[in-house]
Amino acid sequence: MQRGLFITLEGLDGSGKSTQLKRLASWMEKRGSTPVITRQPGGTPTGDRIRELLLDSRSGSLAPRAEMALMFADRAQAIGEIIEPALAAGQTVLCDRFTDSTEAYQGAGRGLGSQLVLDMHRLVCGHLQPDITLLLLPSLEASLKRARRRNDRVAAQSGRDEGRFEAEEDGFHRRVWEKYREIADREPDRVVLIEGDLGIDEVHEQIVEAVAMRFSETHVL
């Protein structure tokens, strides 16, 4: 059986990842391929508990290395429980965030450096890499505004607090944004950079064009 595709979406909170992941899944389903959809942190029962701890503003005292370790614990569980079994069964996996997020947020944002994150990735993830990463990178200001407005709305409606990272100062998010650009420059064969304050339809068109161009000859999409 042909191994499935592993597609990740990356970017700051507020970049539109979740919306575009759903639209990409719908596009694939219309072509006869039903993907497995997951996210990080979260996506498994264990991962959802880790997500709650990581994103809750009350966890503000987490040490940077503890934060990174929790991200990789979540990732290891997702790989073992969801990602690897689906890929082995020939399914396409769409994942909202993967190790690029840890390199950007903990490596750059928290100042731990890329090498520590990449070493952890090799140790914990067994060299698993996405076949293609779709990096959405609108302006920093637009992303933060949308993310903070969304978190305020969710908190008001449900009482659920997932605004821990958005509460960081703008310099933190600038470092994350710049690291994402660096990753795209470093790995152009894997990372497709979709940059600028584009409309939802414009971003979707660029995503499906990139995915179709990369895989239409080898996989059913």
Short synopsis of the structure:
57% of the residues lie in helices and 11% in strands. It is an alpha/beta fold and 221 residues long. The protein has a five-stranded parallel sheet, sandwiched between helices.
Describe it for me?
It is built from 8 helices and 5 strands; from the N terminus they run E-H-E-H-H-E-H-H-E-H-H-E-H. The protein has 221 residues and is α/β, with parallel strands linked by helices. The protein has one domain: P-loop containing nucleotide triphosphate hydrolases (Rossmann fold, 3-Layer(aba) Sandwich), CATH 3.40.50.300. Helix 1 crosses helix 8 and helix 3 packs across helix 5. It starts with 5 loop residues before the first strand and ends in a 6-residue tail after the last helix.
SSE order, one letter for each helix or strand: EHEHHEHHEHHEH
In CATH terms, what is the architecture? 3-Layer(aba) Sandwich
- Overall geometry: globular
In what order do the strands lie side by side in the largest sheet? 2-3-1-4-5
Unreliable runs: none
CATH topology heading: Rossmann fold
Question: Secondary-structure map with pairings?
Answer:
Layout: E1 6-10, H1 17-30, E2 36-39, H2 45-55, H3 64-88, E3 93-96, H4 99-109, H5 114-125, E4 132-137, H6 140-158, H7 170-186, E5 191-195, H8 200-215
Parallel strand pairs: 1-3, 1-4, 2-3, 4-5
Task: List the main descriptive attributes of the protein structure presented here.
8 helices, single chain, about 10% strand, Rossmann fold, about 55% helix, alpha/beta, globular, about 220 residues
